[in-house]
């Protein structure tokens, strides 16, 4: 009888723990690029400690490619699953995911709901139907890295335009390749051109730096003269200063090339700064950074705005506790901690914080690019943005691939591809609503269900 009573007591405690918000396990889905995983684990442990172990956190690592992350989210959310409580969300996805996100206003104090400290372009993405649905975590902006030692070695200035960058990159590339060890592996420019979201970003800022745009006044102008000139320059660069294999490379592969000392310039994101300045890195202490340069024939310095926020799933069984964790991880203090590893704060005031700038002077270079960054057209395309972005990065990747692989490729073909892209984007723009999301249920992985957890508690699981 005592054994049965003991089992009943244990079962009741286990039952309450699974459903009582006072004993919550919060699942957070995050990327692990750069120092991400390390910083997330440290922050969640600190949060759990503040609750004296009352709550726990399970970290789910997302795929590296952003479009794969989005596809996974849509699968989870369309299944109305509550197995992921907090989502790391790209600014460009908010319009697509907003209906699946829990409004956060009820969990925020008046001070916490004050968005005045965020960069203007970030503030535009926080709301949906007048409600706060995401908490900005860190900002991002495309930048151009360069080797200070190589520019000094060959007496070259920091380039002020794309054309000047190309000339300098080609000269240094040819000189460095005179070393037999670098003959077939040193390049003037590292540029990510794999067919996924990052290419949409690097294409958008390239077009912006040539004075063009993808959309203007509600009209698709991706086939304008400025856009054609930008793509021609990119194609020309792939035939001269960019590794042809970059059509399959993301920013991480490009970072590896640059960090190992095998390129002069590199287009990438701010996270790479701290990694490339580690003591073991070949280029540590030999790096400079500038905005994406303008074209000398008309344009402006640029950089596509990136950035990530944390959101609470509409299907979370612990929205209050999840919101508390999201608030902690996106707090000003946590953004200050992450800034030491070159994750750009979303809060503008931290760029005027002398202690923050002392710990990482790199942030001082990034304030102006962030304020002048170009946003992706996610607001315009709304829930159809991913379809539009996919058309963009596939078209640009195809142009580059054919230019380096086909002997019959001609520059006039660029206009044909951009005309085709413009027609596809116009069709997407004409759609007032996206196709319905599949409601197909997703089977839970082993170990996610309630019965499994009960068995595990009693030591009956495999």
Care to describe what's here?
The protein is an alpha/beta fold. Helices cover 44% and strands 13% of the residues. It folds into 2 domains: 2-140 and 306-371, 3-Layer(aba) Sandwich (D-Maltodextrin-Binding Protein, domain 2); 143-303 and 377-430, 3-Layer(aba) Sandwich (D-Maltodextrin-Binding Protein, domain 2), CATH 3.40.190. The chain has helices at 2-19, 36-50, 66-78, 94-97, 120-123, 148-153, 162-176, 197-209, 225-238, 251-259, 272-276, 319-329, 332-339, 354-359, 362-371, 378-381, 385-405, 412-430, 450-457; strands at residues 25-30, 56-61, 86-90, 127-128, 131-132, 135-141, 143-147, 187-190, 215-216, 219-220, 263-268, 287-291, 305-312. The strands form 4 sheets. The protein has a 5-stranded mixed sheet with strand order 2-1-3-13-6. It has a 4-stranded mixed sheet with strand order 8-11-7-12. Strands 4-5 form a two-stranded antiparallel ribbon. Helix 9 crosses helix 17 and helix 17 runs antiparallel to helix 18 (412-430). The radius of gyration is 24 Å and the shape is globular.
Give the arrangement of secondary structure elements.
Elements: H1 2-19, E1 25-30, H2 36-50, E2 56-61, H3 66-78, E3 86-90, H4 94-97, H5 120-123, E4 127-128, E5 131-132, E6 135-141, E7 143-147, H6 148-153, H7 162-176, E8 187-190, H8 197-209, E9 215-216, E10 219-220, H9 225-238, H10 251-259, E11 263-268, H11 272-276, E12 287-291, E13 305-312, H12 319-329, H13 332-339, H14 354-359, H15 362-371, H16 378-381, H17 385-405, H18 412-430, H19 450-457
Parallel strand pairs: 1-2, 1-3, 8-11
Antiparallel strand pairs: 3-13, 4-5, 6-13, 7-11, 7-12, 9-10
Helix pairs in contact: 8-9, 8-17, 9-17, 17-18
């Amino acid at each position: 009888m005592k054994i049965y009573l003991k089992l009943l007591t244990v079962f009741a405690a286990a039952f309450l723990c699974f459903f009582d918000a006072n004993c919550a396990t919060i699942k957070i889905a995050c990327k692990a690029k750069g120092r991400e995983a390390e910083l997330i684990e440290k922050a969640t442990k600190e949060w759990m400690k503040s609750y004296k172990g009352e709550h726990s956190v399970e970290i789910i690592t997302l795929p590296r490619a952003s479009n794969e992350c989005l596809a996974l989210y849509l699968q989870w959310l369309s299944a109305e699953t509550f197995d992921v409580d907090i989502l790391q969300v790209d600014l460009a996805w908010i319009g697509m995911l907003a209906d699946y996100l829990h409004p956060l206003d009820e969990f925020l104090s008046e001070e916490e709901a004050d968005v005045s400290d965020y960069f203007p372009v970030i503030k535009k993405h926080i709301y949906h139907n007048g409600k706060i649905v995401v908490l900005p975590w860190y900002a991002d902006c495309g930048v151009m890295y360069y080797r200070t030692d190589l520019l000094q070695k060959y007496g070259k200035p920091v380039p002020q335009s794309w054309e000047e960058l190309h000339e300098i990159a080609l000269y240094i590339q040819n000189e460095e390749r005179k070393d037999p060890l670098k003959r077939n592996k040193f390049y003037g420019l590292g540029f990510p051109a794999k067919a996924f979201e990052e290419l949409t970003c690097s294409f958008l800022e390239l077009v912006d730096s040539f004075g063009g745009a993808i959309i203007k006044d509600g009209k698709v102008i991706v086939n304008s003269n400025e856009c054609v000139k930008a793509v021609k320059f990119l194609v020309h660069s792939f035939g001269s200063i960019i590794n042809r294999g970059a059509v399959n490379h993301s920013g991480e592969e490009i970072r590896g090339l640059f960090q190992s000392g095998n390129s002069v310039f590199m287009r990438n994101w701010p996270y790479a700064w701290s990694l490339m300045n580690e003591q073991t890195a070949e280029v540590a202490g030999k790096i400079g950074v500038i905005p994406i340069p303008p074209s000398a024939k008309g344009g402006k310095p640029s950089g596509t705005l990136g950035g990530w926020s944390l959101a609470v799933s509409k299907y979370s069984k612990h929205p209050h506790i999840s919101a508390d964790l999201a608030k902690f991880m996106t707090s000003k203090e946590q953004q200050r901690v992450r800034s030491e590893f070159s994750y750009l704060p979303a809060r503008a005031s931290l760029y005027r914080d002398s202690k923050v700038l002392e710990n990482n002077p790199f942030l001082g270079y990034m304030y102006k690019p962030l304020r002048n960054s170009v946003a992706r057209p996610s607001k315009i395309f709304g829930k159809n943005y991913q379809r539009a972005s996919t058309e963009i990065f596939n078209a640009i990747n195809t142009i580059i691939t054919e230019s380096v692989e086909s002997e019959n490729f001609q520059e006039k073909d660029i206009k044909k591809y951009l005309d085709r892209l413009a027609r596809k984007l116009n069709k997407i723009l004409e759609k007032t609503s996206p196709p319905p999301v599949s409601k197909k249920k997703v089977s839970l992985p082993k170990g996610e269900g309630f019965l499994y957890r009960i068995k595990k508690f009693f030591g009956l699981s495999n």
